[in-house]
## 1
Amino acid sequence: MRRDLWLNRIQELDPEIDFVAIYRISSQYEFPWDTNQALGLALYRTYAVPSIGGLLAQTAEFTLNPQKRYDDTVLILESVIEHGFDSQQGRQAVRRMNQMHRRYAIANEDFVYVLATFVVVPKRWMDQYGWRTYSPHEIRATVNYCRELGRRMGLRAIPKTYEEFEQLLDSYERTHFGFGQGGREVSDTTLDLMASWFPRPTRHAVRLSALCLLDDPVRETFGYPAPSPMVRWAVRTGMRLRARFIRLLPPRSKPRFARNGRQIRGYPNGFRIADLGTFESDRATNCPAAPPIPVPACPRASRPGPGSPQ
């Protein structure tokens, strides 16, 4: 199969109407690993906003049970991508997310900023580390997908274009980034969780590699020391070499789901969307936690087989 199989399919679709289908192809066929890393990085950088990082720390459940918070967030977001907003699973996932969020006095501007990270950070990631950059159709579909997600969350003043989302994100971060002890605690817990997925002797290197992938404003806000220029160059060069390798592989014939990855550990026997997340009866209620930041690891390529997206 030609490497541009899915890109050609995307070009046949209308991003104003078929944005869910385009977003699904991009996320689960063209860039499944990259999308997971980029969305993790998107949510991670929100810890640098004291109102967001502080709330996540205050709820306590994230620092007490980070693996479950990671699992629940990934599974909720993936359910919407896989099944669509109007499916039973998609509606249930958005409802579960809204039920958790509404227990807290979260400002609309904070919500819209988080939404902006979903739009802007993945494109910037693909520009640097993707095996190809996003096409204009994928950029527009991402905007429309996130606008629809925001609409179903009841958000106001949602940007209409990628350029508006990018301007909002950059302006918001210049104004709101600042050190907060709560945000630093959540960041440390996230780094520890991510490192725990790897053999103990490699965990320091994994953590250092993750810091190399952060941009300076985020790293400096948390107060982490700068990695040496040589180490940063080596990590980022490794990511670009990975992209060159992925470019040589045939197109994926089956979707790759994050739930099947080794990072999801809390539901070996499956899950029900209605049971994900936290509830009023929990010992420490909280908002969904963010996935950890990306690490420079090359996923095992799966061999193509029969099948196509449903």
## 2
Amino acid sequence: MTRRFADKTALVTGHASGIGAATATMLAGEGARVVGVDLSEGQDVADPALWQQLASDLTDIDIAVVNAGIATAAPLVDLDFADWRRTLSVNLDGAMLGVQAAMRAMIGHGRGGAIVVTASIAGLKAEPGTAAYAASKAGAIHLARVAAKEGAPHGIRVNAIAPGGVDTPIWDDMEFFAQMVAELGSRTAATAAMAQIATPLGRWATADEIAAQIAFLLSDAAATITGSVLTSDGGYSL
């Protein structure tokens, strides 16, 4: 097995499930020491106090995956303001604080580094019912681009990845998805039906596939890539 990240320290937010779990496992398998942060473990990525508490654990960070997120689905006219604020808080405030913490550590140790922000195709393509989630992910994309410009003089690369459909637990919070599961009889059938409808390739990505793409962006093979948005959506946005 290749060990692209031997002797590297990695920060992964949202490491306990989905894309975050797959990425943390992949990075650790290639030699990285992974520092994980997750909402399910009582760590609110949108709380500045958390990042102050973690500062001493992050001083050696070489690579970071700013991935923690939640989803809200509702028509804009029905969207509860508290749901809007919480989605923006976790997905955008949390992303800013995660990128900020990683950049501070990388500037501090002087070795540079690489950061990937997990955005979404929802941040690039408008769909009904996605106002809060889409706005948060559009903001995360531009956050990554600004961070790339600010980080470049310090040898820090920052990119975003914009997955389309990925079979992760985040869908389980979506009412329309629960209805599809009930109608079609299984979660597997619901995900397959959505992929057939939405993507020219006819399938969603797996979390492991997205993790591999994130690992590429973090690796030396992507040494000249910064400020980019890797769209991985099976052709959904065409």
